[in-house]
UniProtKB/TrEMBL annotation:
<dbReference type="GO" id="GO:0042586">
    <property type="term" value="F:peptide deformylase activity"/>
</dbReference>
<dbReference type="GO" id="GO:0005739">
    <property type="term" value="C:mitochondrion"/>
</dbReference>
<keyword id="KW-0378">Hydrolase</keyword>
<dbReference type="GO" id="GO:0006412">
    <property type="term" value="P:translation"/>
</dbReference>
<protein>
    <recommendedName>
        <fullName>Peptide deformylase</fullName>
        <ecNumber>3.5.1.88</ecNumber>
    </recommendedName>
</protein>
<dbReference type="Pfam" id="PF01327">
    <property type="entry name" value="Pep_deformylase"/>
</dbReference>
<keyword id="KW-0648">Protein biosynthesis</keyword>
<keyword id="KW-0479">Metal-binding</keyword>
<dbReference type="InterPro" id="IPR023635">
    <property type="entry name" value="Peptide_deformylase"/>
</dbReference>
<dbReference type="InterPro" id="IPR036821">
    <property type="entry name" value="Peptide_deformylase_sf"/>
</dbReference>
<comment type="similarity">
    <text>Belongs to the polypeptide deformylase family.</text>
</comment>
<comment type="function">
    <text>Removes the formyl group from the N-terminal Met of newly synthesized proteins.</text>
</comment>
<dbReference type="GO" id="GO:0046872">
    <property type="term" value="F:metal ion binding"/>
</dbReference>
Length: 250
């Protein structure tokens, strides 16, 4: 529908109504002969009369806590499935969202696809926000982009280390979470080849976090409950509660 057609439609079908909602609409637009289609659509959307077109997974956004997919044990892939167009598209989409959100770790269930695929990386940009003291205490090291399919974890050091953790699927919060200090991970690459690696410190934490996602778990399941914190609580107070947390990439 063109703008002019939208204006005529609204005049004939909406401005003739006398209910309170339309009276408000008339007051808002009494001086305008026509309104744009975009303005009309936005107005309707606010009234929930026009619903956004549903998207199908894998999504271009990260799903949030409460989404049933995050509580499912992800499906393992057969080796001959890894090279299929569908799975390769899923991995491509996972990488897209990973970069868009500047993640250090992301799993397929977090974009609505319940398959045993995780992606992790720790690069120079990620490193910039940490002090030298933090880098040493958390054993932070640079790590390349790594895709692991059907990961199997073996604990190499049962001592647990506690540090704050956040998650793109629990937007706006963080908490202290205990994790094993050192693990071994085996699985398959995105080409279907065997992969084995040993991770320690922060890298081990990132991988354990993503493996939890593949098993239908979130860090909130194992966190120290009293440490759960809203990441912007002070800003909420400063601005009298007028704070919005975006759930998509801005």
């Amino acid at each position: 529908m063109k703008c002019t057609e939208a204006g005529i439609f609204l005049q004939k079908n909406i401005l003739s109504r006398t209910d309170s909602t339309c009276n408000l609409f008339i007051k808002m637009h009494i001086s305008a002969r026509y309104i744009s289609y975009k303005a009309a659509r936005n107005w309707y959307a606010n009234l929930k009369l026009v619903k956004p077109t549903p998207q199908d997974p894998p999504f271009k956004h990260v799903v949030q806590i409460g989404d049933p997919t995050l509580r499912q044990v992800a499906v393992k892939l057969y080796e001959d499935e890894i090279g299929t167009p569908e799975i390769q598209f899923l991995i491509k989409r996972l990488k897209y969202v990973f970069k868009k959100y500047n993640c250090v770790g992301l799993s397929a269930p977090q974009i609505g696809a319940s398959f045993q695929i995780l992606l992790a990386e720790f690069n120079h940009d990620h490193l910039k926000i940490y002090s030298k003291k933090e880098i040493e205490s958390k054993e932070i090291t640079l790590q390349p982009e790594t895709v692991i399919i059907n990961p199997v974890m073996k604990v190499l050091d049962y001592n647990k280390v506690i540090f704050s953790e956040s998650c793109e699927s629990v937007k706006g919060f963080y908490a202290d979470v205990p994790r094993y200090r050192k693990i071994e991970l085996k699985g398959l690459t995105e080409e279907g080849k065997p992969i084995s690696l040993i991770a320690q410190g922060w890298w081990a934490r990132i991988l354990q976090h993503e493996i939890d996602h593949l098993n239908g778990k979130l860090y909130t399941d194992i966190m120290e409950p009293k440490t759960l914190t809203c990441s912007c609580w002070n800003i909420v107070n400063e601005r009298g509660g007028r704070v919005q947390i975006p759930f998509g990439h801005q």
